[in-house]
User: Which sequence fits this backbone?
């Protein structure tokens, strides 16, 4: 009979692995935001303030939503230990909602926050959360939570697992579907596509990828929640609201709300035909009063843009002029 891991929390010395994964996830998310924040040449002091606001509010929101859910299910023993976050019990939904609301309030109503484009911040910060969520799911693995129904030893789902994961999925007298692993994979793939493709090349308007994150995560949770052992109705409702809200924001940011930026399209290839397919877009806030005129043969100015965006390619003197709209 395999060891039953139900209720066991893995530790490194006296430190819970769950706590370590939470901290590592937050660090990776912060570094991701830092990269794009620095690329936009925003004040790093403002980023520090946003981190100072977002981290505690995310923790408070994540724990609050979980405790509310436990209270609804009348799990009073868990409610009484509301401070014991190292034991697990953080709702990603609550963390994202609380932190996002707090950051929006700062950007909208503080004097310094208004200097930062809300739409850009929305696109930079929210999708970066995906890497934190992905890493955090291994904390759920360490606490032996976030698993699905019974998994047959003859099933494909069982056979493709590594021996370590397979053994740790023996919970409650049965092998369980590793939902934590499925969500980790989904979050990691989304992080790569949304952050390091869509955000890196700026192919969508500012704000849109924030909406994509909300829509995507709503779909993921809507699909995962029914498979979960001990599924909660409140999370199904929130997932549905995420889907509706994400779709609404995508439509607003990409198609309806006026684009108050100077837009630069920078080809990534010297070849004219390839340059029309592979390109990088720069959105500059109009309030910066930047001279947006770039002459066809103004090589130094073109190269300054490319250097700023950390693109090592150099345009030649015959390159066609960059498309500029307002």
Assistant:
């Amino acid at each position: 009979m395999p060891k039953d891991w139900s209720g066991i929390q893995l530790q490194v010395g006296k430190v819970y692995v769950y706590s370590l994964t939470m901290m590592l996830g937050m660090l990776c998310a912060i570094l991701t935001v830092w990269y794009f924040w620095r690329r936009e040449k925003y004040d790093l002091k403002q980023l520090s303030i946003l981190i100072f606001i977002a981290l505690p509010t995310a923790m408070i929101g994540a724990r609050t939503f979980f405790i509310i859910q436990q209270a609804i299910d009348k799990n009073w023993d868990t409610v009484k230990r509301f401070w014991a976050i190292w034991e697990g019990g953080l709702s990603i939904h609550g963390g994202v909602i609380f932190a996002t609301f707090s950051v929006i309030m700062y950007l909208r109503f503080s004097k310094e926050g208004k200097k930062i484009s809300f739409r850009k911040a929305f696109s930079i910060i929210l999708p970066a959360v995906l890497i934190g969520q992905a890493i955090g799911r291994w904390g759920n693995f360490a606490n032996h939570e976030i698993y699905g129904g019974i998994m047959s030893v003859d099933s494909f789902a069982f056979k493709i697992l590594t021996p370590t994961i397979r053994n740790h999925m023996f919970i409650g007298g049965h092998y369980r579907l590793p939902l934590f692993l499925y969500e980790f994979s989904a979050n990691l793939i989304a992080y790569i596509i949304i952050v390091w493709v869509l955000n890196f090349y700026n192919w969508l308007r500012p704000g849109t990828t924030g909406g994509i994150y909300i829509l995507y995560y709503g779909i993921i949770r809507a699909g995962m929640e029914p498979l979960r052992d001990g599924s909660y109705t409140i999370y199904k409702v929130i997932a549905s609201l995420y889907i509706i809200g994400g779709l609404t924001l995508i439509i607003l940011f990409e198609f309806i709300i006026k684009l108050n930026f100077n837009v630069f399209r920078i080809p990534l290839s010297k070849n004219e035909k390839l340059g029309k397919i592979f390109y990088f877009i720069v959105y500059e806030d109009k309030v910066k009063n930047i001279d947006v005129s770039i002459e066809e043969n103004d090589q130094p100015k073109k190269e300054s843009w490319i250097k700023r965006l950390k693109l090592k390619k150099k345009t030649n003197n015959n390159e066609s002029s960059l498309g500029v709209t307002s």
Q: What stands out?
A: Confidence is low (pLDDT under 50) at residues 288-302, 310-326.
